[in-house]
Amino acid sequence: MLRSLVGSEMCIRDRVSTQSTWGIKVQEETANMSKKAKKEVATEEGGEVKLSKAEKAERELKANLGPSLAPNETFFGVCHILATYNDTFIHVTDITGRETYIRVTGGMKVKADREESSPYAAMLAAMDVVNRLKELKVNALHIKIRARGGTDSKTPGPGAQVALRTLARFGMKIGRIEDVTPYPTDSTRRGGGRRGRRL
Fold it and tell me: In Å, how far are 6, 16, 19, 23, 95 from 9, measured between CA atoms?
């Protein structure tokens, strides 16, 4: 009984001491607050603070993504659209194809599996793509549409046309439109067997 009481007193003492030291630590942190943090607090409270040239340049760098363009200059990217009957992929790269600007799929925009390839999902994905490209100052696109190809379907899925239409409607200039579906000149036997796929 005595041991348990002594133990509880020690616990209480420890708690009090940690609280008091924590209070001291907080005071030290506020005293040692950097100039930058104090400026931020002042601006939040509504006070006007003069920024140095370096800080202004840093803020401008953060705001400016993408190339610096003249008012009517066009900057092209390449939009690769893979439209199958299971999903729609919209993948935008630079002209060389090395750097990806954004990649969105229909499945990222809807919850139900059966709606991944729907025109609505493709429209939502294309709207995301347009918003990101406007941030990056890409204002024109060459389009490469592709179906699954090979021994599979050679016709693009239902999302391809809607994705392309949405890109054009929301302010993207369209350059060349190309069908890049891979057609086999000769290949392995197509799946399904002699009598076809039986449902």
Answer: 5, 11, 15, 21, 72
Residue with structure tokens 């060459």? 142
- For strand 173-179 and strand 76-83, is the pairing parallel, antiparallel, or unpaired? unpaired
Of 170, 164, 2, 140, residue with least CA distance to 75: 140
Q: Give strand ranges (E) for the chain.
A: 76-83, 88-93, 100-105, 140-146, 173-179
| Residues 119-176: tens digit of each pLDDT | 999 999 999 999 999 999 999 999 999 999 999 999 999 999 999 999 999 999 999 9
| Residue 20 pLDDT greater than 50, yes or no | no
Q: Could you tell me how many residues make up the chain?
A: 199
Task: Estimate to the nearest angstrom the gap between the alpha carbon of 198 and the chain centroid.
Answer: 41
Quote the tokens at residue 132.
């990101």
Q: What is the pLDDT of residue 199?
A: 85
CA distance 73 to 45: 41
Note if the pTM is more than 0.90.
no
pLDDT in tens, 51-108: 777 777 666 655 567 888 888 899 999 999 999 999 999 999 999 999 999 999 999 9
As given in the structure block, the two tokens for residue 30 are 């506020």
Which DSSP string corresponds to 1-44? -HHHHHHHHHHHHHHHHHHHHHHHHHHHHHHT--HHHHHHHHHH
